[in-house]
Amino acid sequence: GSPLRRPIETIQESGKKAAAIVQDLLTLARRGVAVSEIVNLNDVVREFVASPEFQRLRYFHPLVTLTTRLDPELLNTLGSPVHLSKTIMNLISNAAEAMPEGGEIRVASFNIILDQPVNGYSEVRPGPYTVLQVTDQGIGISPEDIQRIFEPFYTKKKMGRSGTGLGMAVVWGTVEDHQGYIDIQSASGRGTTVALYLPGTRQQAAAAVRANPLDQYRGHGETVLVVDDLREQREIATGYEAKAVASGEEAVAFIQEEKADLVLLDMIMDPGIDGLETYQQILQYAPRQRVLIASGFAESERVKKTQQLGAGAYLRKPYTVEALARAVQVELAPREGMAA
Description:
Elements: H1 5-30, E1 37-39, H2 41-49, H3 52-60, E2 64-70, E3 77-79, H4 81-97, E4 103-114, E5 127-136, H5 143-146, H6 167-177, E6 181-186, E7 192-199, E8 223-227, H7 231-237, E9 241-245, H8 248-257, E10 262-266, H9 275-285, E11 291-295, H10 301-308, E12 314-316, H11 321-332
Parallel strand pairs: 2-4, 8-9, 8-10, 10-11, 11-12
Antiparallel strand pairs: 1-3, 4-5, 5-7, 6-7
């Protein structure tokens, strides 16, 4: 009920978006979608229309309207909700930019069975697809520009309003990583239609978790050791009967003297030993020590090696209290052949 709740939630969401932008940059550099969830594109569209980003778009383009025609029977797809949301945002932003005098953006979704090539592709994988189509009444795209719109940093937008030229490159990378296809129909002065074809699935998403499930994640006296070189991260993560130290060396010293039911371990700490070296040394004193890995960097080979030694899940920063609590609860659950 606090009046601060809404602005704090906005700050939190902005932090998530900032992290998503970094991940988009990594997508361009590294490629590959790290998350494969069951996603419905109708939900992604509705969430974007309700977001602060869309309100900002409307502020800059007050003469532009948006209408939707979303198939209620739309198939789900497997992929990353963050990347798909960013893709839809980029397409709608481009459509608005193409109509400086105003006009209508139409967003439609429907199912289709593909059994023949899509424009621009020599072959397609036949099967069911979920299609998202964004149409504008704008200035259109010349044949010369169509050949370049997926190039990084190629843009004709007004800087400071939207994007930096990475938008369509991210769209292309995301669709490719989702095993999909893009079709663009446009002509100068006659508007543009962009259609995304993503493989459809009849798998259903699990029931949504309650918005505030913290009570069900509370501990029962377990001690968690938080190992992170950043003070802010140590303060955020301390929730159970938690202790926190600032380095791998301090963590090893703690385990030598005391017991922790779980260690939440940062992977990159400077100066000093990193997460892998810390865990290797901890195992000398506590061979069955349970560990969760937390890092803001990519899931590297050292992360995988740490997990091969026995560490549990990899928790990407920035994480929410709920995400941390769920990961801790799973890792603290009794294991077969081990005492609770």
